[in-house]
Specification:
InterPro entries: CheY-like_superfamily (IPR011006), HATPase_C_sf (IPR036890), HATPase_dom (IPR003594), His_kinase_dom (IPR005467), HisK_dim/P_dom (IPR003661), HisK_dim/P_sf (IPR036097), PAC (IPR001610), PAS (IPR000014). The protein is built from 19 helices and 24 strands. It has 650 residues and is an alpha+beta fold.
């Protein structure tokens, strides 16, 4: 702490409030004078004696700005040695650079931290005192030189040697000032990522640069005099590793220790440093000096890269990376599994080694035109394996561009779709069989009862049987057509043509057709409209495809019959508001394992011979017709309901 009223500080700022604040901070330790403009400051410096020991100078002032004032001060022989510290709200690097360029010794940004400001002023005054003492020494040397010249007029060589020594001292002082300013800029500019430090062999911090806060909540001023382990929460493994590196330094096994350490930051969690340490000897003591660099982001990027590499290596898809001319530089293991080619056989080769000959030249020209435009090409390709067999792949090829927009690599992600293609061909075959091989005999089954009905000798029971045969055959034909329609729906080729359909009529027909199954389990169907029993002559029209709607209801009722215990009631309740809602409920619950997948394809559970297509087809046909369908099952009520919402045709 300075003695009161020993050193004088001139504050130059056009804001009176700033002058008041700064005066209050400094008045206990220094004699303070103030000027509200650059012009006033220069007039004051011209007449005051002695001149101030330090000047705090604002930059942004009306009239003459701080940069100009500083130049004037440094141009005057009487004031050029006064240290100038800029105190300003301007915080851009170019502003700070210009401040040092016009002769400032420090650059402090507002708002100020009083303790830090006092510390910087004290440091600059101490440096100025040292320079003043150096100048005194220089002056004494000059006097000595004059005396030597007077006494030894003949010793020109000795005089030249003394002059050289003086020049060297002046250059050393200038280099010292420049080095100090450069170091301050360096530590400030990198304070969020780099820390310079000096500590004793016991770990006591003797010096740390600005930016200590990225290690701890402790400021760099507060850290001085404390142990590393007290102000930074090192992980136990890192602490042990750091001590071992220090031991190797002291033993002389290494001259520079380079190692990583991890610590827990109270706010930002686990972070990582790379440390570079070496020994120094200062005033008879052995100390450790070094730099710590924050590498947390680099560690995270490395971890992400390792995750990405594992994902690519373990992916169940072929991944190929090529250079800018298309030659392969990387394949993942799945590529080998699919094609039969190993890395040593394929690296450096062009992907055309897989070419099957199944695609024409136009196909490849279109692909390369897309890639050359910087776009991703997607499509299906027939390729050839190492053993000569063909296989289908769904392929996505993306060009990788550098910062100039030039292609440097191509990345291909390919999925083997041979099974899907085989299934598509199988579906086409099944469709052809169902369209021709099954529908032809069904036409005879449907037409033959019509011929028999012309016989006048048939009894009523016989006519009823013929009607049932004809109706069942027609329903079978409709179901075959519905199966063909499902395939079209899955492939996006189905054309939906809605019409007005009486859903009550369909339900009554369905109840009649399923009567034998109902009687076998002693089940009954209770059909209601708005809670009231439905009469045969009642109509309720919905907007739908008659055949698809019948197929949906048939699948849902068939499931309800299978799931219901014997001698129970299956309720079908219809509600008509803006839309028509059907609720089909039965006793029993859906197994827990299948509830989330109830409408998914091939999902079945505990049903002998079940295909998992009934509810899937119901959902698919509902989606095509714009219906909403969902299932609700309750373990508490031991009840399952299927809800179907359809647009009304009214």
């Amino acid at each position: 702490m300075h003695q009161a009223n020993t050193e004088a500080i001139l504050i130059v700022d056009d804001h009176v409030d700033n002058l008041r604040i700064l005066s209050n901070i400094l008045k206990h330790d220094y004699r303070v004078r103030a000027a509200t403009s650059g012009e006033e400051a220069l007039r004051l410096l011209a007449v005051v004696s002695p001149v101030p020991d330090l000047i705090l100078l604002d930059i942004m002032m009306p009239g003459m700005d701080g940069y100009t004032v500083c130049k004037e001060i440094k141009a005057d022989l009487r004031t050029r040695e006064i240290p100038v510290v800029f105190l300003t709200a301007r915080n851009q690097p170019e502003d700070e650079f210009q401040g040092f360029a016009v002769g400032a010794v420090d650059y402090v940004t507002k708002p100020v931290n009083p303790p830090l400001l006092l510390a910087r002023i004290q440091a600059q005054l101490a440096l100025a005192a040292q320079l003043k003492q150096a100048r005194k020494t220089l002056e004494a040397g000059n006097r000595f030189v004059a005396k030597v010249i007077r006494e030894r007029d003949a010793s020109e060589a000795h005089v030249a040697r003394l002059e050289h020594e003086i020049a060297e001292r002046e250059r050393a002082e200038a280099a010292l000032r420049e080095s100090q300013a450069r170091f301050i800029r360096l530590t400030r500019g990198l304070k969020d990522h780099v820390l310079f430090f000096t500590h004793s062999l016991q770990g006591e911090l003797l010096y740390v640069s600005e930016g200590f806060e990225f290690l701890s909540v402790t400021s760099h001023e507060e850290a001085i005099g404390q142990l590393w382990s007290d102000v930074v929460d090192w992980t136990p493994e890192s602490l042990d590793h750091g001590l071992e590196q220090n031991r190797l330094l002291l033993a002389g096994d290494i001259t520079i220790a380079e190692f990583e350490m991890a610590y827990q930051h109270p706010t930002f969690g686990l972070r990582y440093l790379t440390l570079h340490e070496y020994l120094i000897h200062e005033q008879g003591r052995v100390l450790i000096e070094g730099v710590a660099i924050d590498v947390t982001r680099q560690k995270l990027q490395e971890a992400q890269l390792r995750t990405l590499v594992r994902a690519v290596e373990q992916a169940s898809a072929s991944i190929v990376v090529s250079d800018h001319v298309g030659n392969i530089i990387y394949i993942n293991p799945y590529f080998t599994q699919i094609t039969g080619y190993y890395k040593e056989e394929i690296i450096g080769k062009n992907p055309r080694i897989l070419k099957s000959g199944e695609h024409n030249q136009e196909f490849y020209q279109t692909m390369w035109a897309t890639l050359s435009s910087g776009q991703t090409w997607r499509g299906e390709i027939v390729n050839r394996k190492k053993d000569g067999s063909l296989f289908w792949e769904s392929t996505s090829i993306s060009p990788i561009l550098d910062t100039n927009g030039a292609v440097v690599n191509y990345v291909s992600v390919k999925e083997d779709i041979s099974d899907r293609k085989s299934l598509d061909r199988l579906k086409e075959d099944v469709e052809r069989i169902m369209r021709h091989d099954l529908k032809t005999p069904l036409n005879a089954i449907i037409g033959f009862p019509q011929v028999l009905e012309f016989d006048d000798n048939l009894t009523d029971e016989q006519r009823e049987i013929l009607a049932l045969i004809k109706e069942s055959g027609q329903k079978m034909l409709d179901m075959i057509d519905a199966s063909l329609d499902l395939f079209k729906m899955e492939t996006g080729r189905y054309i939906y043509m809605p019409q007005s359909v009486d859903i009550i009529e369909l339900l009554l027909q369905l109840a009649k057709i399923t009567q034998p199954r109902l009687e076998e389990k002693q089940l009954h169907i209770e059909l209601t409209l708005g809670g009231c029993c439905v009469h045969v002559e009642k109509q309720l029209l919905v907007r739908a495809d008659r055949r698809l709607l019948f197929s949906i209801l048939s699948n849902l009722l068939s499931n309800a019959i299978e799931a219901s215990p014997p001698a129970e009631i299956i309720t079908i309740d219809l509600e008509q508001q803006e839309a028509v809602t059907l609720a089909m409920c039965n006793i029993g619950t859906v197994a827990e394992a299948i509830r989330k997948h109830f409408f998914e394809k091939y999902k079945t559970y505990g049903k002998q011979g079940g295909t998992g297509l009934g509810t899937y087809s119901a959902k698919l046909m509902s989606d095509v017709m714009g219906f909403k369908i969902y299932m609700d099952t309750s373990d508490t009520e031991n009840r399952t309901c299927i809800w179907l919402t359809m647009p009304s045709s009214v």
